[in-house]
């Protein structure tokens, strides 16, 4: 096994070490080699429990001809998207620039980059090798273009970088100095309504995901008197729970469905989806008396406890109490399990346990939430109070913000000494290591992280709420003066992105409406809560 892959924390990366492809991990070694050999980078982003990733790896990367093309013409980089959410989000955004109207989602992604790591071409393949253009043609074409039309490829890479860094200028139709957050929510509400599938519930085309942040925002709007928003959310939740998206036999939600009426579910079940949906169904149970909601929460939590607890990881893994694995899937009768334990996703599951304990009358779940928090503090918080995303990987904005909200949730439900001290440690890290001191808001990677070609300041939701939405909510709840000021500055820093696409910012808008109501941004601070 190549030394560079032997001790990588990702099982997905270690699995590919047996292939004849000369894989590198993302970092200075790969970039230096690409520059020294004057080759482009071929970056493959996949995941252990993605059948499409596994199929592509088995069919393509094990072929001698394909490996020869890759090793001769490229410096090949392997990325587990669960271990590197910063790279995953960055290359997904680049794909949306390079392939307008197309999104990567859970599919494997192949990105061709300049020797300095700037992407100039991107492919996403939901079907693995079956759905990908013939690999040899793709490799030959890109290699030829790199030799014959390199200036054009580099110009395209510079365009991607520019597009990701630009915003709407002042004076454009998107810029309104006196815009209030309620107007943004109203616009998002109209966009969600236009995308709503009235017969089947849910939003958008197929394949379709659950969009838990949108459902949570609609439930919140329902609490404010928007009965149509409430009906839209509850109908979608009911359709999902009574469809193949929800595994009625084993419990838990699949990642997505490929056909209308929530038919043909994908084989993956992820902690991200199930933690978020257990939490959303618990919110539904608080606003509606239908017994279906707590039943779904019970079954979803039972699935996570049975199939995703860390003690059920690979046989050689040491038993760990209180933590949860990232995902599982079934491929050809074989169960694929991702033993990676993300701090951010474990924090989301902690929040789901706290919310579920309330609506399902399960006080034991509070104990399990405490065990999860203890596990995270023991394994992810260094003696210097530096939070890790997993073993050997520094925490991102999501790890800190999600855990801050989880600690505050648990403290509100089951207060214990030390909770608020831990919350302050996490909040201080947000200020010191992630906050933009000039424009406000928070970067995904810390200030001292190895530099990438673009620093993301995530605002839009994907499967999960954006880290900035979570940081804004957690800091406002903590309520110190600096925290309240930083929470307000998130909204000010990201207003352009919200203006351009309100419907993609459900979590930010829900937090903003909760904090500031209909107040204009300029006077929002007075509406901010003063305590946790």
Structural summary, described in words:
- There is one protein chain.
- The protein is α+β, with helices and mostly antiparallel strands and 532 residues long.
- It contains 21 helices and twelve strands.
- It has helices spanning 3-6, 11-15, 28-37, 51-61, 64-73, 85-98, 135-148, 150-165, 181-195, 212-223, 227-241, 271-287, 292-307, 343-360, 363-380, 397-413, 419-434, 467-478, 481-493, 495-500, 506-516, and strands spanning 23-25, 41-46, 75-80, 109-113, 119-124, 257-259, 263-265, 269-270, 327-331, 334-338, 388-390, 393-394.
- A five-stranded mixed beta sheet has the order 1-3-2-4-5, with helices on both faces.
- A hairpin with a 5-residue loop joins strand 4 (109-113) and strand 5.
- The longest helix is centred in the middle third of the chain and has 18 residues, at 343-360.
- The radius of gyration is 23 Å and the shape is globular.
- The model is unreliable at 168-178, 312-320 and 519-532 (pLDDT under 50).
Helix content: 40-55%
User: Sheet bearing the most strands, described?
Assistant: 5 strands, mixed
Low-confidence stretches: 168-178, 312-320, 519-532
Adjacency order of strands in the biggest sheet = 1-3-2-4-5
First-residue to last-residue Cα separation: 50 Å
Beta-strand percent range? 5-15%
Helix count, per DSSP?
21
User: How many strands in all?
Assistant: 12
State the shape. Answer: globular
- Could you tell me the radius of gyration in angstroms? 23 Å
Round the mean pLDDT to the nearest integer and report it.
87
Structural class of the secondary structure composition? alpha+beta
């Amino acid at each position: 096994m190549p030394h560079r892959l032997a001790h990588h924390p990702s099982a997905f990366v270690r699995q590919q070490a047996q292939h004849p492809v000369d894989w590198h991990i993302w970092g200075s070694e790969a970039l230096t080699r690409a520059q020294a050999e004057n080759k482009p980078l071929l970056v493959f982003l996949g995941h252990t429990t993605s059948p499409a990733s596994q199929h592509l790896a088995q069919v393509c990367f094990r072929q001698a001809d394909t490996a020869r093309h890759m090793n001769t013409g490229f410096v090949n980089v392997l990325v587990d998207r669960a271990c590197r959410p910063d790279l995953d989000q960055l290359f997904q955004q680049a794909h949306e620039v390079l392939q307008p109207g197309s999104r990567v989602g859970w599919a494997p992604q192949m990105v061709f980059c300049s020797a300095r790591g700037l992407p100039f071409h991107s492919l996403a393949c939901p079907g693995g090798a079956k759905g990908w253009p013939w690999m040899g043609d793709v490799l030959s074409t890109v290699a030829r273009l790199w030799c014959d039309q390199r200036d054009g490829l580099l110009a395209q890479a510079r365009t991607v970088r520019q597009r990701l860094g630009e915003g709407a200028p002042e004076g454009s139709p998107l810029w309104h100095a006196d815009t209030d957050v309620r107007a943004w929510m109203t616009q998002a509400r109209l966009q969600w309504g236009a995308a709503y599938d009235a017969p089947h519930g849910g939003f958008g085309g197929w394949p379709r995901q659950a969009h838990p942040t949108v459902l949570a925002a609609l439930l919140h709007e329902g609490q404010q008197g928007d009965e149509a928003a409430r009906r839209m959310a509850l109908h979608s939740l009911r359709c999902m729970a009574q469809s193949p998206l929800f595994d009625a036999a084993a419990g838990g939600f699949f990642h997505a469905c490929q056909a209308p009426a929530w038919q043909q579910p994908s084989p993956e079940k992820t902690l991200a989806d199930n933690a978020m949906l257990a939490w959303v169904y618990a919110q539904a149970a608080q606003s509606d008396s239908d017994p279906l909601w707590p039943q779904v929460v019970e079954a979803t939590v039972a699935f996570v406890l049975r199939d995703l607890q860390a003690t059920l990881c690979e046989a050689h893994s040491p038993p760990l109490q209180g933590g949860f694995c990232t995902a599982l899937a079934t491929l050809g009768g074989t169960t694929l399990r991702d033993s990676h334990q993300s701090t951010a996703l474990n924090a989301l599951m902690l929040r789901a346990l706290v919310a579920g304990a309330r609506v399902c009358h399960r006080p034991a779940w509070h104990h399990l939430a405490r065990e999860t928090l203890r596990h995270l503090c023991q394994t992810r918080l260094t003696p210097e109070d530096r939070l890790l995303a997993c073993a050997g990987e520094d925490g991102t904005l999501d790890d800190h913000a999600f855990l801050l909200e989880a600690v505050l949730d648990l403290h509100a439900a089951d207060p214990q000494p030390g909770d608020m001290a831990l919350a302050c440690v996490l909040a201080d890290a947000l200020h010191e290591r992630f906050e933009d001191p000039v424009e406000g808001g928070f970067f995904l990677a810390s200030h001292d992280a190895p530099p990438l070609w673009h620093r993301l300041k995530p605002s839009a939701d994907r499967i999960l709420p954006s880290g900035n939405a979570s940081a804004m909510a957690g800091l406002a709840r903590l309520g110190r003066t600096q925290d309240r000021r930083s929470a307000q500055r998130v909204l000010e820093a990201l207003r352009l992105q919200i203006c351009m696409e309100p419907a993609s910012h459900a979590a930010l808008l829900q937090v903003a409406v909760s904090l500031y109501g209909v107040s204009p941004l300029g006077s929002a601070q007075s509406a901010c809560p003063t305590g946790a």
